Amino acid sequence: MIIDENIVGLFAQSSAGHDKGKIFLILSDEKEFVYIADGKSRTIEKPKRKNRKHLLLIKNEAKISGEMKALREKLLRNEPIRNEEVKYAIKKYSKKKYPKPTL
Fold first, then answer.
1. Distances (CA, A) of 42 to 65, 83, 88
2. Integer Cα distance of 63 and 40 in angstroms
3. pLDDT in 10s for each residue of the chain, 103 residues
4. How far are the Cα atoms of 30, 31, 99 from residue 74, in angstroms, in the given order?
5. Res 65: pLDDT
6. What are the structural domains of the chain?
7. What region does 84 belong to: left with phi over 0, alpha with psi -120 to 50, or beta?
8. How many Cβ atoms sit within 10 Å of the Cβ of residue 55?
9. How far apart are CA 86 and CA 94, in angstroms?
10. Is 41 exposed, middle or buried (0-12, 13-18, 19+ CB in 10 A)?
11. Where does residue 76 rank: exposed (0-12), middle (13-18), buried (19+ CB within 10 A)?
């Protein structure tokens, strides 16, 4: 999936690799790669570099929690975020019964 918009602060699900199916926060992006964190195994201090085409963006407004929106706003304003905030937002999203995004 090629993404041409500002995706910093959005959440995405990995569609390939050993982390397939996991939810991550996009911290920054480059041409073909993004840096993602989940606050647990991949912290904000040591994000994972991931190919953009191996991510499925979570963009449906009904699925996005208030915590996810708050984290995106903080990142866009260059405010510091904590790993605990990322973990909490992902946990709240995961508790909801949404079907997994498909290609």
1. 21, 9, 14
2. 22
3. 444 568 899 999 999 999 999 999 999 999 899 999 999 999 999 999 999 999 999 877 666 778 888 888 999 999 999 999 999 988 888 776 555 555 5
4. 19, 23, 28
5. 73
6. 11-95 (2.30.30)
7. alpha
8. 23
9. 12
10. exposed
11. exposed
What is the pLDDT, as a whole number, of residue 68?
84
| pTM of the model as a whole | 0.82
Both tokens of 86, joined, read: 């990322």
Could you tell me if residue 78 is left (phi over 0), alpha (psi between -120 and 50 degrees) or otherwise beta? Answer: left
